[in-house]
Amino acid sequence: MKQANFLPFFLGLLAWVCVSCVKAEDPYKYFNWEVTYGRISPLGVSQRGILINGQFPGPIVNCETNDNVIVNVVNKLDEPFLITWNGIQQRKESWQDGVLGTNCPIPPKTNWTYHMQVKDQIGSFFYFPSTAMHRAAGGFGAFNILARPVIFVPYLKPVAEFSVLVSDWWKSDHKALQQILDSGKSFPKPNGLLINGRPGGTSFTGRKGQRYLFRVSNVALTTSINFRIQGHTLSLVETEGSHTLHESYESFDLHVGQSASFLVTLTAASKDYFIVASTRFTKPILTATGILHYDGSSAKASLPLPIAPTYQKHWSMKQARTIRWNLTANAARPNPQGAFHFGTIPVVRTVVLANSKAKINGKLRYAVNKVSHINPATPLKPADFYNIPGVFKLNSIKDRPSAGPTTLAPSVLGFALHDFVEIVFQNNENSIQSWHLDGHDFWAVGYGGGQWNSTLRTRFYNLNDATTRHTIQVYPRSWSSILVSLDNKGMWNLRSANWPRQYLGQQLYARVWNDEKSLFTEYDAPENVLHCGKFRK
């Protein structure tokens, strides 16, 4: 009798648990994107652009932490195509990363569906085409991850958010630009700068006395930029998924591939004000403008534009050191960011990566530690996962720069899962560099001039509250250093964010691996995985 009396209770409890599990599943966001050519005129010259659902720039992706984001990409171009998701970590599934080392490209007139979960992430990010020089024609857009309502955000809530994409631009067709690189010539300087696809006139409307969040990304191919708003202060609150201490800036440098979020309070007189982006470390200086419009005002913005630095690398380096992690704030998770004491973790390995350029067979190439990466016909990820021979050689690139000629090869560096690694980017050239790591974020702990050596750690490293990010700049004739916990198993692209340099070989892949085959560390290939090269059904 007693057992019979407990049966309804047990069945009810089981039903409640099942319903709770269903309700607890993270939400899904679905997008269907048609990628086409279309005529655009960003700089007043009609040219072929790459549109997503007829839009240039592409549609904004807005989602929340842990959402499942499903994007069906229909490739209506005349070439294979991929999109990569700058800063989206693709936890346990580099299969979704959308670069040529992990994915076969989507053939023309076909489609492929990305299945991503933005696991434990918040912040401002973006997407762009990763194949050929398609990025020079468009196909990019903002990707914003909002915090879940139950997670505290360490700044006053804005009344609205604005996505701002700053890009350099060329009047030449993307295939003509690709031909310049394929012929072994240097990439030309850009013809202009754009804010949300326009050199001027992009407008954002707000009300006096209200706060707004500006999510700003540098989606340029080659150019660092300085961002500012006339008559207003930028309060930095987030960089690439990390909440920062609230430093105020009159202007802010963003290097290729970087993103940041600023709170802006409209406290000035009611009128229009210029939003300005200008190039850094270039001759000539290129400028794009937008408008911050106070609702109800008819007064136009007036010159002069707010000034900003142009060539001064030390000014930019000093500013970079002021960006600090908010140790007491949470990010995507409820625990404080500072609970992870990164500065006390033993480093198991130091890797020094030096960029360079060389002529190979009479043509210009870029390299890392004397290896200029080439993409094999079979992507590295399936070749590694399915033990396909003859595709790449592990550790074809060394941990330190060495003398000797530059070689062409798939460039793969092996790491053990959960290695805590120091990576130093050494730039011996006269141009600024920008480096991006897929699948992870890292602590940007140090910047300095000249040649790096181990004694500089005690003088220049911030091991307390350096912020995490996914892209770091390296100033001319200088070095930058990062610490990274390689806790995401897979094949991950470590590349120059300067796209022509990436295209001509300044990139490598980090193979993060252990021998345990388990869904707790890495997912299997998706059912819809594309095949190419030696990777066949």
UniProtKB/TrEMBL annotation:
Signal peptide, first to last residue:
1-24
Give the record's keywords alphabetically. Answer: Glycoprotein, Signal
One of the entry's Gene Ontology molecular-function terms is: copper ion binding
Q: What single Pfam family name could you report for this chain, choosing any that match?
A: Cu-oxidase
Per the record's keyword annotation, is Chaperone included, yes or no? no
Sequence ranges assigned to domain Plastocyanin-like in this UniProt record: 35-147, 162-297, 378-517
Cited InterPro entries? Cu-oxidase-like_N (IPR011707), Cu-oxidase_2nd (IPR001117), Cu-oxidase_C (IPR011706), Cu-oxidase_fam (IPR045087), Cupredoxin (IPR008972)
PANTHER family per the record? L-ASCORBATE OXIDASE, MULTI-COPPER OXIDASE
Family note: Belongs to the multicopper oxidase family.
Q: What is this protein called?
A: L-ascorbate oxidase homolog
- Organism whose genome encodes this protein: Centaurea solstitialis (yellow star-thistle)
